[in-house]
Amino acid sequence: MLSLIIIALSATPDAGTRPLPSAQQPAFLDVPQALKRADVPPGMKALGVPVKLSAVVSKLNVEDLKDHYERAFIKAGLFVPTDDELDSPTSLEQVTGYDAKSRTSYSVIFQPNLDGTTTVMVGMAALHARMPDPPPFAPVFPGATGVLVSDAEAGHTLSYSVAAKPDEVRAFYRDVFTRAGLKSTADGRWEDPASGHWLQVRVNDHKGKSGVVVTGSTPGAE
Length: 222
Prior knowledge:
By secondary structure, the protein is of the alpha+beta class. It has two domains: 2-129, TATA-Binding Protein (2-Layer Sandwich); 145-216, no CATH class.
């Protein structure tokens, strides 16, 4: 589940980059050879679960980082599922660990950069503090799995994967939004002319499925 939460990080408005050191977190989540860090504002919840998210740029490559976290998570006593056991709508490499005692999930997703650095998307989810699931704020393509709704001060995010082609997903939202009276804007958003609130859909192709992230504005946040 947390892997989907972190995917939402890339679709949220920029939280701003600040110098290290990082916010309080377990030592096994520390990013080696870190250069800079950006945090999502506190108070974010996903599927009713409180989460902490950040993105850290490291000098290391993806292979070295993945090896580092696999060893660090195992050494910390976390359960680390294999790649085949993870259902993620992204093609990016990742490592996820679960602490059964504290009921906390930890994930890191690696995005290689053109300059040879790697952006490490880090997340912690406090599953023991889960609240009732929030309803989706936008329609979901039929047959979707791994549906995740997250709320933060900056906006809402809906993430899921579905066994449909990206063009089919885009056509679905184009039809639904048009019938709802939303207007397409030049920056790829769908806006409500009356309120000014907007929705935006991002779709990527991954292993024969579509990974979908829908973001929406929060009333009064803009």
